[in-house]
Write a structure and sequence with these properties.
By secondary structure, the protein is of the alpha+beta class. It has 10 helices and 29 strands. The strands form 7 sheets. Strands 1, 2, 4, 5, 6, 7 and 8 form a 7-stranded mixed sheet that branches. Strands 10, 11, 13, 16 and 17 form a 5-stranded antiparallel sheet that branches. Strands 25-22-27-29-28 form a 5-stranded antiparallel sheet, with no helix packed on it. Strand 28 and strand 29 (603-618) form a beta hairpin.
Length: 621
């Protein structure tokens, strides 16, 4: 029996005896032998003023603290498992590479985390991402390393100062080379703008659940060279070999494990990946997170609107520039949670046709590539297609935000944040000539990029203008005149200085019971939405409605749409009224005037205060 087979049998017996939970394999025929792998372990603690054993102790301590928090139910609320190879259905992890017989693992882990963060910050997933693979050689050898190792802290500092270029500019060959930097590299460098260390397992999990992969290191023992699958735990007789840097792409809180991408090619482990237990071999003593990149090469470096779903901020963008997925007409009713619905549908165009002579609800969304926190103002305009080349003809066709302002301003955005206009724009378009159509134009203004509306002489080709300006987008509009509401009204609602549970009800007084209505609220900040989906009016003399806890100083527009197919056949006066009530404390009801009996749904008859209403009324035909 060969010596390697004998060692494998002993290892497998030890794994089974101690129930370590992983499978071992003999890799003696692969491109990297055990002796070769020893050369890849290039993690050097010299500048960190720590040792491998101290890191292992920290890792074990961190794991004990995580278990304490877990038992006390004080850990973050996150999914049980996250893997950035399939994060919300997309992969933001690049292919597994092979560092060869060179101690450059730190540079591979550093390049790997930058590759993943760039892709996620721009929502440009694999395998067709516009972002290039990065050059580990430009990190390692241009930092003055040969094939000896260094550490993640030093590598991050180097890339923050000097950047990393695409792989095609300095391909990695697996052995030490002199740095071949050229002046043209300056235009294609990606730099780390801000980063930090994470030393809590719970914080590591929370970061991985929301923001992307992490760079980390662990102690390699000789039994790990035989790892095939499962969750690795060091065997008792394993011999320490050295430190190794890898990319942590996810976690499994059920089995208390990390999911990591290695740089030893795809023939080892789980197609180049491995899973390792939390608290094992110093893996989670600390991990390294990238907060932002500057610049985010090769894309626009501020808040942007997409021209199409393949637009990630590259200029000039290719493909359609007249159907922006970030100008989003959603119909006649406001969304009850626009942030959630419009970020979850980021990779879809969910815009609808607009209804002529009705209040159409329109949202805008964008993404920030800015390395610094920034606010953005979203503007929306309309124009006839025939006038697009003449901005002076449409720059005053501003569609105001439902708050009444000319624009919606976001809170501070971090790099990679998806920005959604929480308040929509309301537009009631009139019919247009048959040989023309409307266009909606979105515009973003930030402190760094005011993006003024151009003059006519500066726009010779409007499609080219849109394609070359990520802060502008356009959407051609199709107007439909079917199923147009008989009434489409905006009602201004102000709560006042006292918060209360408010009841929004529809009362029918003689209106045909075949008529239909819908109610929605443009301000979605209340927990229970003020929304009644389209439905038939209640029976004559009855009420239907909803109630919601409204905070003080709440302001919004209430959108009321009404369809009455039998309006022309009405032989008597009828009315449909939207009323707003609140129910005072029982001891106060006798002292308050303007009360009425409120009863609908599960609300039993009670004296309630009528605060106001809006009535649609018609006389007999």
């Amino acid at each position: 029996m060969k010596n390697s087979e004998k060692k494998l049998q002993i290892l497998r017996a030890e794994i089974e005896k101690y129930n370590l939970g992983w499978e071992a394999e003999n890799y003696s025929s692969t491109d990297l032998s055990a002796e070769d792998l020893d050369k890849t372990l290039g993690y050097d603690y010299e500048s960190e003023e720590t040792t491998s054993e101290q890191e292992a102790q920290k890792s074990r301590k961190n794991y004990r603290e995580y278990i304490r928090l877990l038992k006390a139910k004080k850990t973050s609320e996150v999914p049980d498992t996250v893997d950035w190879r399939n994060f919300q259905g997309k992969s933001y992890v690049t292919k597994v590479k092979n560092q060869g017989t060179c101690g450059s693992c730190v540079s591979f882990a550093t390049a790997g985390v930058i590759e993943s963060i760039a892709r996620y910050r721009a929502r440009s997933p694999e395998p067709s991402s516009i972002f290039p693979l990065l050059s580990e050689a430009s990190i390692h050898f241009c930092a003055g390393r040969a094939c000896e190792g260094w550490n993640l802290s030093s590598a991050f500092s180097y890339v923050q100062k000097n950047g990393v270029v695409p792989e095609s500019y300095f391909p990695y060959k697996g052995y030490a080379e002199p740095c071949r930097a050229k002046p043209e590299w300056d235009a294609v460098r990606t730099k780390i703008y801000a980063s930090h260390e994470i030393t809590s397992i719970d914080e590591m999990i929370r970061w991985l659940a929301e923001k992307g992969p992490l760079a980390t290191r662990f102690d390699v023992y000789d039994d790990f060279y035989s790892y095939k699958s499962g969750i690795y735990h060091k065997s008792p007789s394993a011999v320490h070999k050295g430190g190794h840097a890898v990319l942590c792409v996810g976690y499994d809180t059920v089995n208390h494990a990390w999911i990591c991408k290695n740089s030893w090619g795809t023939s080892r482990g789980e197609n180049g990946y491995f899973r390792i237990g939390m608290g094992e071999c110093g893996i989670d003593a600390k991990m390294y997170a990238i907060d932002s990149l500057a610049p985010l090469y090769p894309v626009y470096t501020d808040v942007m609107l997409r021209d199409n779903l393949q637009d990630f901020g590259q200029a000039k963008v290719t493909g359609s520039v007249c159907a922006s997925p970030d100008i989003i007409p959603v119909g006649l009713d406001a969304l009850d949670n626009p942030q959630k619905k419009l970020t979850e549908s980021w990779f879809q165009d969910i815009g609808q046709n607009l209804t002529a002579n009705a209040n159409n609800v329109i949202y805008l969304r964008g993404i920030s590539h800015n390395s610094r926190k920034t606010k953005a103002k979203f503007y929306l305009y309309y124009s006839k297609a025939s006038l697009l080349l003449y901005p002076d003809q449409w720059k005053n066709n501003l569609i105001p935000c439902s708050s009444g302002t000319d624009y919606f301003e976001t809170e501070q955005l971090n790099q990679g944040d998806l920005a959604v206009t929480q308040l929509p724009y309301i537009w009631k378009p009139s019919a247009i000539e048959k040989n023309d159509h409307y266009c909606l134009i979105g515009r973003i203004v930030t402190e760094e990029h005011p993006n003024p509306i151009p003059s006519a002489q500066d726009v010779k080709d409007f499609a080219k203008f849109i394609a070359c300006n990520p802060n502008y987008s356009m959407r051609n509009i199709v107007l439909v005149d079917k199923d147009v509401p008989d009434y489409s009204v905006e009602i201004q609602y102000a709560q006042g200085n006292i918060g209360a549970t408010m009841h929004f009800v529809i009362e029918n007084s003689g209106c045909s019971e075949d008529a239909e209505f819908s109610v929605s609220c443009t301000n979605s900040s209340v927990e229970a939405p003020i929304k009644i989906e389209r439905q038939k009016v209640p029976k004559n003399g009855q009420l239907t409605g909803i109630h919601a806890d409204i905070p003080k100083d709440f302001n919004s527009q209430i959108l009321l749409n009404f369809w009455n197919k039998n309006a022309e056949k009405s032989e008597k006066e009828w009315a449909l009224c939207l009323k707003v009530f609140y129910i005072p404390e029982e001891q106060d009801r006798k002292e308050i005037r303007n009360t009425a009996v409120l009863q609908y749904g599960t609300i039993k008859p009670v004296q309630a205060v009528l605060l106001g209403g809006y009535t649609i009324k018609a006389a007999p035909k």
